[in-house]
Design brief:
The structure is a single chain. This protein is mainly α and 85 residues long. The chain has 4 helices and no strands. Helix 2 crosses helix 4 and helix 3 packs across helix 4. The longest helix is centred in the last third of the chain and has 32 residues. The radius of gyration is 14 Å and the shape is elongated. The N and C termini lie far apart (38 Å).
């Protein structure tokens, strides 16, 4: 599936252009975007936006992109450390 298809499946296709802009500004990969939109969708299930959906999405999606990046860095660091022994 493409990144845009993930956005369509999660109901955020209308925010796809905003997500692309945010991801481009932070130099995030398509894989990071896919993981972040899935996490954003999960959060929307528990805490759906009630007033300003676009602003809610911007905040949550940006937060999830950062989480995905942190997880990736942590995993790479852990793997390097394991192989260095």
């Amino acid at each position: 599936m493409t990144c845009a298809e993930y956005f369509a499946d999660t109901g955020f296709l209308d925010l796809w252009p905003l997500a692309q802009e945010v991801a481009q500004d932070g130099d995030y990969s398509e894989q990071e975007m896919i993981e972040a939109i899935c996490m954003t969708f999960d959060k929307a299930q528990d805490y759906p936006p009630t007033k300003n959906r676009c602003k809610w999405f911007l905040i949550v999606f940006t937060e999830k992109l950062a989480e995905v990046r942190a997880q990736t860095i942590r995993l790479e660091w852990s793997n390097r450390r394991r192989h260095a022994r």
